[in-house]
TrEMBL record:
It comes from Marinomonas piezotolerans. Keywords: Acyltransferase, Transferase. Residues 3-152 form the N-acetyltransferase domain. InterPro entries: Acyl_CoA_acyltransferase, Bact_Acetyltransf, GNAT_dom. Gene3D superfamilies: 3.40.630.30. It comes from the Bacteria. The keyword Nucleotide-binding does not apply. This is GNAT family N-acetyltransferase. The keyword Protein transport does not apply. One of its GO terms (molecular function) is acyltransferase activity, transferring groups other than amino-acyl groups.
Amino acid sequence: MEIKIDDLSGGEVIKLLEEHLADMYATSPPESVHALDVNELKSPDITFFSAWSDGALQGCLAIKQLTPQHIELKSMRTSSSSRKSGVATKLLAHALNVAIDKGYQKVSLETGTQDFFRPARNLYEKFGFSYCDPFSDYELDPHSYFMTRELAEKFA
């Protein structure tokens, strides 16, 4: 699998992000959806990664700089054909290693409380994330969990 920094110009990536947004709105109330659209993901404070295998898109993940030391994970998504194949684990390890290389010291995220998000929460827990209070501009929301962890050693 090849993971690359993506400029969000490809149709496959845009389609995957549109599916991601559609699922977010189908599982959470609109005021609790914090997913970014394609234009927001093109912001200079965001690095967007896409994962490919044999020319097929496997998944994506973005890191958003909150401060020079702190990033947020955004838009974690695997293609339906790639679920439970290890793509998310590889993408997350890659993005966190890039963040460490760039000198970031902390990573946080927001995810849903519904069962739909259980696999994502399991993955984050496996990577050492712990539950925390809202960070950045987030506020307490019964439909959101917030997670964080310090960054130090690289991930295998």
